[in-house]
Amino acid sequence: GGGDAEKRGALIVLEGLDRSGKSSQCRALASFLRGRGESVEEWRFPDRTTAIGQMISSYLSQASELDDSAVHLLFAANRWEKRSLMESTLRKGITLLIDRYSYSGVAFSAAKGLDFQWCRTPETGLPAADLVLYLDIDPEVAASRGEYGLERYEKVDFQRRVATYYQAMRDSTWQTVDANQSVDEVQEALREAAVSVIQSCKSGAELLRLW
Ligand code: FDM
Ligand code: MG
Hints:
By secondary structure, the chain is α/β, with parallel strands linked by helices. The protein contains 10 helices and 5 strands. Helix 4 packs antiparallel against helix 6 (102-111) and helix 6 crosses helix 9. The two termini are 22 Å apart. 3'-fluoro-3'-deoxythymidine monophosphate is lined by residues 18, 45-46, 60, 75, 99-100, 104-105, 108, 153. It comes from Riccia fluitans. Residues 14-189 form the Thymidylate kinase-like domain. Keywords: ATP-binding, Kinase, Nucleotide biosynthesis, Nucleotide-binding, Transferase.
């Protein structure tokens, strides 16, 4: 244990169904943490800015078709192409707040009928989240939110299947927050969990790998 590990940032992931409020909660959580003097970067997957991300984005907006397994591997490759930047950022003491990660990768592809274990394999070796904040929302409530249904996976029956695969991946790093509550109540729950995991990463908690 050198000095670097003692000061590393935390890898915090927000997960949940489409329209569960992840993006706005991420933004609010980042500014809260910055207000406490933490260094924080907000990331999201898919990262649509890279060449791989553009293929994914075109697929999601239904402008192109791709084989289910091929697109699964593209989502994973989109994380691998960010792996070294993720690790060096954390080592600088910067906390990463990431909107979706490997858990989305597995849950959405498994919900299409791909084998759950096969889906996990290309994620193996990526940095594991120190904390997964799962925003638990009723798919019907999510569907009633603005602009739902524009992208490929935004259908209630599909999202219900996604939720069952998310449940299958829960481990000790997960905290489930009831996202049917008000925006402020959800934020309150996220803040507590985030502050505490940032502290344990500063005190030397090791960065683990999936899975
Ligand atoms: N999604 C996201 C996947 O299917 N696999 C993945 O690895 C990731 C990160 O892409 F429906 C799905 C989840 C969602 C869609 O995500 C776009 P955003 O958060 O709405 O951009
Ligand atoms: Mg979406």
